[in-house]
Amino acid sequence: MTLLAGDIGGTKTLLQIAAGPSQHTPLDVLYERNYSSADYPVFDELLADFLAAAQQAGVPKPTLACIAVAGPVMRDSQGDTLAKVTNLPWVLSTKRLAAQFTFKQLRLMNDFQAVGYGLEALTDDELLTLQRGEASPQPLPLPRVVIGAGTGLGQGLLLWRGDADSGYYDVLASEGGHCEFAPANAEQLDVAAFLLRQPGLTKQPGRVCVEDVLSGHGLVNLYYYFADRYPGQVNGAFTQAMAERDAAAVVSEAALRAEDPLAEHALDLFVAIYAGQAGNLALTCLALGGVFIAGGIAPKIRSRLDSALFLQAFQNKGPMTELMKKIPVKLVTNPQVGLKGALRVASRL
Question: 80-111: per-residue pLDDT in tens?
Fold first, then answer.
């Protein structure tokens, strides 16, 4: 069988063709490409270019496909499955894509569903333990959660299905990144108040959601907060670099190299908010099976996440603090975990 796997994000889109005799044997990657999502007005054109390039390279045409999308995936009244990419104008249709590209079967799913399925495919060296936690004997594996900041904020819940020997983790999608931001202390309250006074910085005027502070755009917002608070420390050359390049990358790189004090403050607060939201998700789902930190930003700031700052904010849940210390927390270092998950789902079609 020849399979297509896709991982669509607001910034980039990864596509891959792989083949294997069955879902129970290792798959061989035949062809893959990485695209800038903004270069295409619709996904159909991008996929057509990819398949044409693969055909020119002598790669067999895929017949089964799974495409992960950074956005909600819903079924309409006509039996079609539609996916709207949150940070792009793209709308994907299972029926339209299957007919246009003659797939026998095609599944669309939320990108963090795919990340959850991809966890099964990771090796130990693709996971960095941030907190070991405490394992306790259980008849069945316990719930897990996955969270990851990038262009937006993805979240997912993993629940065990079946018995202990032949079961598997099923992954439920979430759009929790669009929930309201819940400040954990006075400083974070000040951040929320600042963003409410700056409607151009938030997704919706008069409302601060989690993504407004916990995403690439959110990290930039935190820098603007500190720049507003300490205007005398603003470096003109630094802000010019933010205007000319990827602003979030400029802030994180400067913070990691200790080149700009405001960038350092912004990244430290970002890490504290990240840990707090991961802890909130873990508590909400009672994810004693583990918390997995994924997304595009986490591997780039791993030295900050693998720190006392992160763990203190993760564990700081009042009477639940001791419980939080028992939850394993791991950082996913493989940026293709979502693609791996989509490929595993495609192989099961």
Answer: 999 999 889 999 999 999 999 999 999 999 99
